[in-house]
Amino acid sequence: MTASLERLDLDLPGLLELLGGSLYSDPRVAYRELIQNAHDACTRRRVAAAADDRGWRPRIEVDFPSEGPRRLVRIQDNGEGLEPDEIRRFLATIGRGRTREVRRLLEASGDEDADELVGQFGVGLLAAFLVADRVEVTTQGRGVAAHRWICEGRQTYRIEAAERDEQGTTVQLRIREDHEELGLPAIVRDAVHHYARYLEHPIFVAGERINARALPWRCDDERASLSHEELAATWSSAGRPIFVLPLRPFTHPRFGEVALHGVLSVPEASVVSLGELGEVAVLIRHMLVTARDRDLLPPWARFVDGLVDCPLLQPTASREQLRRDERMELVREAIGAQLLAGLGALQRERPAVWRQLVDGHRALLKQWSARHRALFDAIADHVPFATTRGEMTLPEYLEAAGEPVIYYFSEEQEARTMALLLEATARPVVDAQWFGDLPFLRVYARCFGLRLVRELEAEAGVITAVERPSDGLRRVAARLATDELDVQVARFDPRSLPAFVQTPSRLEVQREVRGAAGRGQLHAALAALTSDYLEREAPRQARRRLFLNASCPLVQMLGEASAAGSRRVDAAIDLVGAMARTLSGERLSPARMLEIIAELTSALEQLLGAQAPVAARPLSARWAMEQAGLSRAKAESLRARYGSLEALAAADPATLAEQLGISRTIGEALTRLAAHAEETT
User: Fold this and answer.
1) Is 293 within 8 Å of 306 (Cβ atoms)?
2) Coil/strand/helix, residue 77
3) Which of 62, 156, 416, 485 has the greatest number of beta carbons closer than 10 A?
4) Which whole number is the average pLDDT over 401-426?
């Protein structure tokens, strides 16, 4: 078989199905494509600038004819129109667009009007079949008769003579029966407004102009211009902006003057992960491409949103996304540079707003600046941190600390002891529990040559180890030590604090992992990894440590008194240990809390010399007869009723007198005698 050159056939129905199911995500983009075609036709006519067109004014109209039972949508323009041969070249040839050819000619000649032409791929008319099963295009070029192009989404089309009042094009859509809602005037108006509200030429839907306001950088004689603040409020997704930054054109060695325009806005606050921003709406030649692009802003700008309009950006074929290419990277870098410059100007010129911005977005700023040096340099000395002295910037913290060290805690259980010890030495502590705090502190310390101190080891400068404690302190330490608790004799402030327990963070992790594995809460594969982890960690099992304060007068007294082996001294030492454990900051289970309470109670009982209750002294009839002169009968009755001297001493004299048939005076004497009796007979 000899080689031959064949021609590819195109299955139009299959292509339309591809467009509807894969290329475009929303069938309403059909209206965007058709408005774009109409707008480009008006721009091409203006560029042609014929002498007899001086009174011409561009206009695009969308209306809804009532002709039969099916919904119709009609889009008309008074633009350039097409001649008969152009109908075949452009309407009937997929991938060839009149606008693209004109733009190439204008770009080659350096004409700025090239940036005003929106169309690019030559597939815009095909998008009409997303919503319509029949498309009629009636068009009339300059100085020629009108013709109508009719296609019902099949491989064939028809061209016939037509009549038209003026140069331009009318596209009439017969809406598909399975998409009739897409022909509703409200749906069409919203779609046209969404995509085309910033285009230049007047656009009317059912007589209402939908692009009556011009972009701030596109002001003209006919339309009132939007302010940058109004535009920012429209596209901000998080409420009223507190800072608005207009974007400006820039020059590039390869692309020359790049018409970058737009507005960036910063709202009052954001939340990491849940309330991050970092998305912008994107216009290309003033037509909306996407309302939410997350890659055009620098990755660190998660506290910013807004609108970007730049003809250098390239859309995908569907015009619903941007191409991730060199041009996009170039624009992103320019936006990042302008944003950083704007933040610097805000800091200098409007410090109150700058502080509000940094405070409202502190978590995001810390998180992202730890990974992006440019942002870090801009905000490093301004972002606030919570400390034991209130909120401070890091320069304020270092001034208060008086040394090139940042003391911090990153977990709640560390906070209590660390804050107590450092406050006694006039050192504040940074609360680094919040998202992004610790990575930021690490970068800050590295950049400025600072030390970060988390756990209060002896080398931290807050605790001084006692190398040779006295015999008494060694005895105290020995009593406090347990199988799970090491004791270190040291000196630290405040001197009034006898001891505290430090729980290493690694121990907490090991306990949590071991507990989850023991409860069967881990997947089998993860449980195996956990077992390996615990086995590796076993040789260097973290242990809690009790620091015994050799500077504390109470500890010194206990050390001296411990030689006698007194139970009360031992109880006092136990009490010091129980107090220290309550200051450990460790998360204590209810059972462990009850154990500590029991230890405290027992120690206090021993310190107070508590003994078993003294048995009650029996009341005898003989005592009553001898001491009070009662008869045997009355004495026996008294013994039977009260039984003990304590009960008789507590009796009411009047009741006693009535019960025994004696005078009140004798009853009072009996209760007094019982209260003072030393023993019974």
Assistant:
1) no
2) strand
3) 62
4) 78
